[in-house]
Amino acid sequence: MLFSSIPFLYYFLPVILLCYFLVPQKMKNAVLLVFSLIFYAWGEPKYVLLMLATILLFYFCGIAIGRAEMQNWKKFWLLVSVAVSLGLLAVFKYADFFITGFNTLTGFQAPLLRLALPIGISFYTFQSLSYTIDVYRGVVPVQKNPVNFAAYVTLFPQLIAGPIVRYADVNRELDSRTHSREDIFCGLRRFLIGLGKKILIADQFALLTELFRGSDTPSVLFCWLYAVAFMLHIYFDFSGYSDMAIGLGRIFGFHFNENFNYPYISQSVTEFWRRWHMSLGSWFRDYVYIPMGGNRVKTGRWVLNILTVWILTGLWHGAAWNFVLWGLFFGILLLAEKWLPFLQKLPAAVKHAYVLLLVCISFVLFNAQSISQAGQDLRGMFGLSGIPLWTPEALYYLKSFFILFAVGILGATPLVKRVGERLSGTIAGGILEPIILLALLLLSTACLVDGSFSPFLYFRF
Q1: Would you name the residues annotated as active-site residues?
Q2: What share of the chain is helix, strand, coil (3-state, %, to 5)?
Q3: Are 435 and 423 in contact (CB under 8 A)?
Q4: Where are the beta strands (DSSP E) in 342-442?
Q5: CA 35 → CA 25, 28, 31, 155, 251, distances in Å?
Q6: How far apart are CA 84 and CA 334, in angstroms?
Q7: Average predicted confidence (pLDDT) for the chain
Q8: Which of 104, 320, 396, 427 has its CA 20 to 30 A from that of 121?
Q9: Dist CA 266 CA 287 (whole Å)
């Protein structure tokens, strides 16, 4: 089930809100658990059992770690949770990738498993791992209530596309949380803003990228239109989903951490990754990079740590070589910024421009179906594939999507938020805000009723 769908907006969400706020406090997590399982089963009924098995694994491993008196036994149960969960992830997400590589290297013809990828498995696996690791470290107490723990893992607002919510961030709210009209309104406002970003902006950029792939008359201009459109599409798609997830969490009394902080205003690649998919970056930092030694080791080992983390980050996004190269690309860029301090002495406009160019190139690689397609797209962008600078088709789409590009570029900066903050609390703001939010809902609904193309890009991860 998609947040940006009629069944969710007008059936599922009203029913769960009604049930949730009618039941007493001690039953609210049970209601969330039941409806979260229904939400997941709507799209993945056969993999609900896999999720329940994951929940049982981490629940009992957490109990075992908490009860173990000897450090070796604590470590044993931690390793069990890590090995089994990553093993399941490897089988469902990476098995065919490794088998294909093995066949290519050896000439064998081992059959592929061709397993369907369970939606959100990367997200709920990482969330569950944060629980057992933090219990082992003594950061959080053991959750002995199975309903509360299951509600955490299956919490539908962030279940299938994040943000990655660590147990440490919500453990107190799982046991006891408050609800207020302010939280409900703030959550609803955040949800509707995210819905508008997703349907009214991201989906329109997705349409342009589809038009590019279907075009028989490529040009340098069209290649750049595609690259910038996808760059804006992935931002508004994923940040819009994160807004909706954070907003829904707020309605139910949870305060999830931010996942995006205007990454396209960054003046370094390092800053970009502090602003982009923040929950994933901090997860790899705290659970992979720092345990490997971080930057407190010799230079050679530090370089290995950086490259390992970024190759894993690439693989996390998908089982394909373009994702591996995408992660490696960013790892090398981060190392370059550490070793080339003059980059930080460049004028701000130059630093901003080079970051946007590199990020744009990286997303062309990210969205390619193969390495050869990525190479073809990049050659086209820089006029190295013998295609014309422009064609009538490219000029037509430039004119048609010009306003959308202007809205997207402006919306990717903090300017709109700052204007909204200045208006808030004023009479004009009090009048305009509910009108704008209602307009977002009505326009988004109209697009959905019209049958507009509206996939969530990050569902494939």
Answers
A1: 317
A2: 75, 0, 25
A3: no
A4: none
A5: 16, 11, 6, 9, 15
A6: 32
A7: 92
A8: 104
A9: 25
